[in-house]
Design goal:
CATH topology of the largest domain: Immunoglobulin-like
Number of strands: 8
Largest sheet: 4 strands, antiparallel
Distance between the termini: 82 Å
CATH architecture of the largest domain: Sandwich
Length: about 150
Amino acid sequence: MKKIFLPISLLSILIISCDIRKHDNQQKVSATEKKEIKAPTTVVVIDTTFDFGKLNEGEIVEYNYRFKNTGNKPLIIEEAIASCGCTVPEKPDHAIAPGEMGFIKVKFNSDHRPGETHKSITVTSNAVPEFPTLYLKGTVIGKTNE
């Protein structure tokens, strides 16, 4: 029994160690590729502020902020973060090629938010200068008690 257990154990260790080395090499390549992709580029944001006007409490507003990669490297949007949980931005899941248009979709839920609304969306990217802050504003008309 011991004669069978030892070779099987050694074989298992060998297989696992080979897989770990393969995984380490893949991570190194990915990191190198990411550095090349993150080279700075420029962006022009077409829509920095969206005024939705007036809406009734409980309605949801959706808007696509447009931008264009004006540089000569891919534009990588790493994250888009809203100033409030009632506003949810969605960033592109792929690089925006030079000359290509892109969108950051934002959903604002006006439920329990009566009054003047001013929200901001901060975008982190490889754009130089930095991607400007995006703004959403308007007035939410509260529900009337009947």
